[in-house]
């Protein structure tokens, strides 16, 4: 088939299909007009093509036929959209469809002109062709203004803009008008949207899908009936009591009763805000504003109030409001109203109050405010959280009426709202906060609310709860209002809101600062709050100390803040010490309570070590540990008020207890003749004075025992310490301090015999037994200090080798006591004292065995069953390798026979250096003898017990210092024994450690290291090639 034949065939099919469609199948004017042109064209072409075969047509005619055929095919595609797609789909594409038909029509008109010029014989046919060509060229296909508006509107809605209900209604009206459908015919409109959905299911256009989504939402909203038309009271009342609104009362756009009816030039009535929204949308879309109901393009946007209609609506509203109020009172006045009934009543009351504010007085006069409050009162446990939240929202709405607000306050709404702050639902809590926020606009109410128990705490908790941001913001807003009231500062601070207090303290005038400082002094605060206030206000408080009127309040506040140890640094940095010492030393006329507060603050600051030791303590820059300040405290101690004396003793004790200040402070106390002053308080009738006097004396005894002992003897106070120690009536803190003081004093043998005596030794052993009985139980701090003191006292009895003392040691088995204390206690000080006791007894034993004395059988005294003893004496004594003489198995002067060596070896691994030194010193007593083969026997025995390896390992790890010196002596001694030296001759770690000690140790250590290396040289060599190798390895 030729191309012309195909074109003719396509032309006939297209014309047949277009002409076969009846005009009524097209709902639009443009396809009907084109269809008319197609019918005329069909007749002309039939007349032209019937006489001859297509191939016989002239070339111009063939060209024209082909062109017409192609344009008809395009037109048929556009017409098929008009015939087969939904009306809304056509509206969406109306501009493109119109343009397509216009283009095809003009093109066909052009092809007909070519055909006209090619016909020469048939005049009538040529005239018809010319007429049709002219008509098609002049044809104008148009889209109506309404269709344009709707098409533009649909495109804009496809952008997902927010739309009000009024605008949605106007859109539906425009759409219905364009579709030729009544806007109230929901069924037909929904059917058209459904058809559009089917069309778009075959479309890939994103914009078309967005338009469909928007239309579906609009239709869903449009199909909902107004609350005015559906709301009813299910109460037993007159059936016709409620009057339904007239149709003209309802806004065509909102479907609700109009509040401000206005009339347009089209004579249509609308709610003012609704029609204004529609006008804004029209202007935004660049189209002329229209009347939504009539579609009329408006020349003027004037909105004339319809006063008559507004009056009729108001009368109708008043009548129905009165009916609803009466029904609400009836329901809420019942003894046990139904819950669903109460819910509907609350909804109606809320709607009346919100939508008709002028009717609030009617609700109030009908007693509904009181009824709703009583509902919360009487049914707070029986009604659910939903009803409570609705009741609160009703009261919130009614609180905009001042008289109603007064009624609520008198009825106790504040406490009810506070109770709802812990409601089970977020809605109830939010309603409660909103109600409190509404009332908080009044300053007097803010004060009352802040004083209500739990109100501020609950609001503060809500404000800090970020899981519910809306609720948090409301609570924060209410708190901000309350913070503006001066009287609320204390209540807010008690609830954890300190910012108002701090702001006033930092920025307020002096009288406000003093008031806030007084408040800080009286408050009970957590540690974190104390630190917060100290950081932000310490400098201000210190400045107030210089003002007589603010001194008392500032001292109270600083005292409260100084009770937190961590605040000491903050207060010192704020220059609190010079201000306080000025009060103590320079203002002698101040009331005793103020000087007492100043002293107490310093006592709190120095109670724990910190950087106060180097801080300036007066205006001249003297540090608190300087002689000037310490002397001033000592002088003040003699003349201060009784309330202040105990605090000054506390201060001196705190300063003397600091590792950084102890040496200088104790030295200044001694040089300033302060011992006599301090020990004078040891017998003070008040416990607090004695406690700090004993504590301070204990610290003095640790550094200047001889000076203290001399003063105590001169004042005959030594017996006092013994009496305090043995007196059960003494406080738990006095007895340990007395024991430690006596233990620290350098008592002579005569002092031990006369002041302490044998009976005191017996008491000490018995008391130790009681304290240490049941080693698995925890010992309190005073008891632990007591153990340390008693062990120190036992040391006094170990330093004498006279027969009487020896017998006492044996009788009470002191070596066993020290050994058991060493093993059972985990405290470094106890281990240290026990090791010193074992050292002292071992040294005494060396002297006794050297003089030929032997251990007699142990006595059977009171102490034989003590828990400190272990084993029983053997009747046959083997020769001791340490002392080279018979030692009983439980000897109180032999570390080996009393099983003390292993516990001492274990101490070499202890973490405390002082304990390690004491253990080394005790073990060193076993290596003193170097004649008659004593050293060789001792070393070999100790080697078997692992002592040698443990000491060498400790020496290798020790740094230059006392521990290195003590261990180097032992290493040098054991290396004198040939077998041991030979065993360690290849120990390069030991050689390196000895070389390091020779280079970096003190003089004594260097001598011991040199001798030890000399001993090793006899075996492996230290100089020459061997020495070079060692150095190279290092």
TrEMBL record:
Single GO biological process annotation from the record: protein ubiquitination
Highest taxon, organism lineage: Eukaryota
Single GO molecular function: ubiquitin protein ligase activity
EC number: 2.3.2.27
InterPro entries: ARM-like, ARM-type_fold, Armadillo, RING-Ubox_PUB, U-box_domain_protein, Ubox_domain, Znf_RING/FYVE/PHD
Keyword flag Repeat: yes
Record's signal peptide: none
Pathway stated in the Swiss-Prot or TrEMBL entry: Protein modification; protein ubiquitination
Domain U-box: from-to ranges: 244-323
Top EC category: transferase
SUPFAM superfamilies given in the database record: ARM repeat (SSF48371), RING/U-box (SSF57850)
Cross-referenced Pfam families: Arm, U-box
Keywords per UniProt: Repeat, Transferase
Known catalytic reactions: S-ubiquitinyl-[E2 ubiquitin-conjugating enzyme]-L-cysteine + [acceptor protein]-L-lysine = [E2 ubiquitin-conjugating enzyme]-L-cysteine + N(6)-ubiquitinyl-[acceptor protein]-L-lysine
Record keyword Transferase present: yes
Protein name according to UniProt: RING-type E3 ubiquitin transferase
Organism in which the protein naturally occurs: Rhododendron simsii
